[in-house]
Design brief:
196 residues; alpha+beta; 5-stranded mixed β-sheet
């Protein structure tokens, strides 16, 4: 917890929050959440987008916040931004964050549609599932918005991570070398949430 001073939240012990635009009445927002283990390696990232303008309005990230505490941060930011829809990457530690958001009774959670082969029908599951099929779709949609100028990015960290995100020889996508892509992944998940 903390207070907002000069558009940044101060007084919190974990993570960095930057706010470029405060929530506006009657506007809808979307949060993209990429979750790490919280052991000072990868970052957990929360990216907030105004759905109408597709502008990045806030960002939080931390490399030492456990997944259940990321849920608290996401719920706080989601509540602050007019009870925004939250899309958590439903891989690895993201399951803990999704469960914690449910325990917190946060109601506006993103559900991803997918075809259930066994049940032979479309189903919905909480969270964004990044895999070999969905990652290229997410990256392509993000690139389309960038090329058309239909997205506004305010984070220098996000722009820096975009510059080291590549298509590898094996066909996978991610950051090069020791660079991170967690803020970028949160942003791309946020975009998919906003467009849903």
């Amino acid at each position: 917890r903390g207070e907002i001073v000069n558009r940044s939240l101060v007084g919190i012990n974990k993570g960095r929050l930057k706010i470029w635009k405060f929530p506006q009445p009657y506007r809808d927002y979307a949060l993209g959440v990429d979750v790490s283990e919280g052991i000072n390696q990868d970052d957990s990232s929360i990216q907030v987008f105004d759905i109408l303008s597709m502008e990045q309005v806030a960002e939080w990230y931390s490399d030492n916040t456990p997944p259940e505490e990321v849920a608290i941060k996401a719920a706080e930011l989601g509540s602050y931004y007019n009870y925004a829809k939250i899309a958590v990457e439903a891989n690895n530690h993201g399951y803990t964050t999704i469960n914690s958001l449910q325990d917190l009774r946060y109601k506006h959670l993103f559900k991803m549609k997918r075809f259930d082969v066994k049940k032979r029908k479309d189903t919905e599951r909480l969270g964004w599932y990044t895999n070999a099929r969905t990652k290229p779709i997410m990256v392509d949609k993000y690139l389309e918005l960038l090329r058309s100028g239909d997205i506004i990015l305010n984070s220098q960290i996000l722009v820096d991570q975009m510059s080291t995100f590549v298509l590898r020889e094996d066909g996978s996508m991610g950051s090069t070398g020791s660079y991170k892509d967690d803020v970028l992944m949160g942003a791309m998940i946020g975009v998919m949430c906003a467009l849903s």
